[in-house]
Batch of 3 targets.
Target 1
Amino acid sequence: MSKIYFRRDILRLSPKALLGFSCAHLLGIIEPKTNLIAKQDTYPTMETVIADLNNRIPLWLQQFRIAGLSLAIINNRELLWHRSFGFASYNQKPISDNNIFAAASLSKPLFAYGVMKLVERGKLNLDTPLTEYTSTPYIKDARLKLITARHVLSHTSGFPNWSGDAPVWIENTPGTKFSYSSEGYLYLQKVVEEITGQALASYIDEQLLTPLGMNSSSYIWQPNYNNLATMGHDRSLHPVPMKKPTVASAAGSLRTTAQDYAQFMIAMMQSGTITSHLLTESSLEEMLRSQVQLNYYLDWGLGWGLEYSNKQKYFWHWGDAQTYKALAIASRELGTGVVILTNSQNGLKICPAIVSAVMSGERYALDLDLIEY
């Protein structure tokens, strides 16, 4: 039986271990996933689930020492219910549905959707080296000419996750290994901005946020956020002010609400035409097609992690901005999904219980006992 790797492992796996995943898949040690889509088992009604969550979430917030949480549930490809619990600032300011959270890496799938719009319109090719779209080299490394948008969106670009204050570098040969990389997204952001002639925040707002009705969301700080932003909280529930980005980061600067992000999740379940704000079915299928296999249960697509559980395929992503944690997970086939935004360092601890209440099956992407807090 192959070992199951989870979030911490995905971020820390050595190149040798990740290569082992690929080789095992090629050699047939990890059997290919087939016939995975089937009807869901009998499960409680959504009305029962919501009533149960209303009772349990306040208790879970106390148990896990989480200040506040905003939750949205999608059913039948519609926003069924959303509610906020706890405090925007612990024991001082109760939370409301209008409060803003830092979505952290939930920024990445939304950016990936925007990239796919450029692909549909013939302005970007997933497999053309990104250097062909830029006027000046991003870094001085010959391997830069190998990196494509597909590599970046599937975390096989070879860039590290973060370079800190040091100049960014390429760790691995592009296209050979999965290595989660926020730096790769920043590189692709520069390319997108050069192609569109727009700052990323303007492009995403024009092409996605406004058409999807995500009116509370932005990759840069908005004046009304001064009154709506939640405070972050450390493990001891000490408040930490939210950072106020003035320049967008494709990797993590999105500020949003649970109900806003749910609109994006619903868009992932629908399809449109090349001229509409929704991606075509073929583009959505490409986003959710396995680009790299991590193990039998987890793959990575374009912008999304992919999970196979209970004979269903789910797309998901976490967000981790220290004192803000987030999770979004959904199934196109079932038309169900969950968005969880928290303003606490312990925020991910509550996610397995909430997701399990809404969706049946093992959550292989959410074994949070293996995540360091």
Target 2
Amino acid sequence: MNQTTKFPQFVDIDEIVDLYHRWGGEYYSEAVTQTVHAVQAAELAIAAGASDELAAAALLHDVGHLVDLAEHGPRPEAFDTDLRHEAAGVRMLALLFPALVTAPIALHVDAKRWRCAVDAGYLMTLSDASMRSLVLQGGRMSPEERVRFEAHPQFHAAVQLREWDDSAKVVGRNDPDFEHFIPLLHRVAFDS
């Protein structure tokens, strides 16, 4: 997806819920659907005692993929291109949520690149889809990139979100519906 998406920014939480209803059943080169992945990431965040903001970030971290699906439908070339879903997601969420929600989302791809640079064993744990996207997203961070990333105020939140992202791919779990998290989204949204 490019920076000039025709999809408007979200102005209320109902629009996000509707997007997940329409496109959350799609698979994005993983064993679970977009919605299952989102819900599992949020559940992991809550179980770890994360703040409401970080749990909301876990729930919404891949919303940029759904925006791309809504604009273009499922398409094979999406697997061969860095769609910058993290940037698209943050742009879509910026009117509704504070930086404590959006910054970890913006950084979760960089967190994977960082982790691959500092932990050789981590690379071996990535799914095939995550390995493919790593290459498209720039590969392992350089030493200079690592220094900049580690200095970011949301560095730790982004790395934690990445861990939940990597773990939220369990087939056959009894997960709650996306709607279960609507109160959480309202708690952290601007003017809610």
Target 3
Amino acid sequence: MAEVATPCEESSAGGGDGRSNRFLVVAYGIQGHLNPARSLARRLAGIDGVAAVLSVPLFAHRRMFPSDSGEGIVSDGVISYAPFSDGLDDGSWPTGSEEDKARRRRASVESLSAVVRRLADAGTPVTCAVCTLNMPAVVEVARAHALPLGVYWIQPATVLVAYYHFFHGHADAILATAEPAAHEPTLTLPGLSRALRARDMPSFFFTGDDSADELSKMILQGFRELFELMDDKEETPCMMLVNTLEALEETALRAIRPYLGDDVFAVGAPVLAGAGEEEPAGTGGETIHLFAQEEGKRYMTWLDAQPVKSVVYVSSGSLLTYSARQAEELLLGLERLGRPYLWVVRRDGRSPELERLLHVAAEEGAGMVVEWCEQKAVLAHPSVACFVTHCGWSSTLETMALGVPAVAAPSWSDQPMNAHLLAEEWGVGVRAERDADGVLTGDELARCVEQVLSDGKTAANASAWKEKARQAMAADGPSERSLRSFVRRVQELSGMNL
């Protein structure tokens, strides 16, 4: 796998670099956290007087920079990289047990504290720590070193509203929406405009204490700790940066600010505005890919040969994998459509049975199956007609910003609420229904794609939102102004007069 940049040793050791604000941006070592965090770090570094250091777990750092040992601090010429150990240096997944959680937290706190000390010893002290979502270890480090903390909420503001109210008196009402009833129960959360069903809520809400899903319980507990921190900012000043646009979620942002105060900043999500266009201000450079792409990107040549607005693009992101039955159903649906398709199936999720199905598809199908691809470039291609998506927030933002109608097929976490936003709030797609076994059937896939492509209103909505996103992400647009306001707030908290 190619490196995201050619790293060089940090040259400022011992002498400082003349920049008074240094942000330590810490992210989990998974694709959906790395790219928003790196983009934010690079955008911060583009502000006068600001430097940024991205710190990710050692295993992810080594995948980003295969030639780097991970023992020091390196730079790509825009930001620096300082990995930390989260106790899972071999890339294994956490077990969710209390013992494992405590061990990983200790390792992360010790390692990140060492990064902070190393930067201070080099004459380049950290003035603010930023972490993606719920990272309790970063909270501990910020407190220990008396640093302001920025939480980078890399999910929609609507999800932020839902979590806030779940932990502030509305949990029972939210859980009641999942109870059997003659008519599907709904709930309208304070400040939001639409009623929500259980199927529209973040999946972790419905992880009970008796659940065997230890990972989900651990994640929900992490969110609980985060909101306890937000409730008590006396010990650690805490700000919320939301990876959304004011134009996209004005209602949700207005709904959360009375509870979290003025320290809520919609810092946007810059992505490519379209094929052949320059990236908007502060996009953060090239995307980090933890999965190998086909050499030469043959899929782009294949897309060039397809008719305009003909291709169905299918991807379930960097975490979810397909069962053999799910893959078979998707192939049946794609064959029924009779359209060219580009389908991403990662190598790490391919069972022998799935490999057999994919081989048949390659021999007989009308599409192309790839292990990974440059998604923004694919969505910006004129041959792509619609996106069958798992509704991860990054993918949701990209399909919005690039004006591609979507078929929403969510599974867990924030994805159900993202699907609700795509289909019902913004009207840029339809939500697919899964069967009793959680499988998206071929018939349902074909029905949804045909509905999206035959509905002129959906295409019109997608084009309208693309233009709104382009304006919001412009140089000195609302997103960049909000990011600068965040920096000024950190300066105030640090007692600086810059």
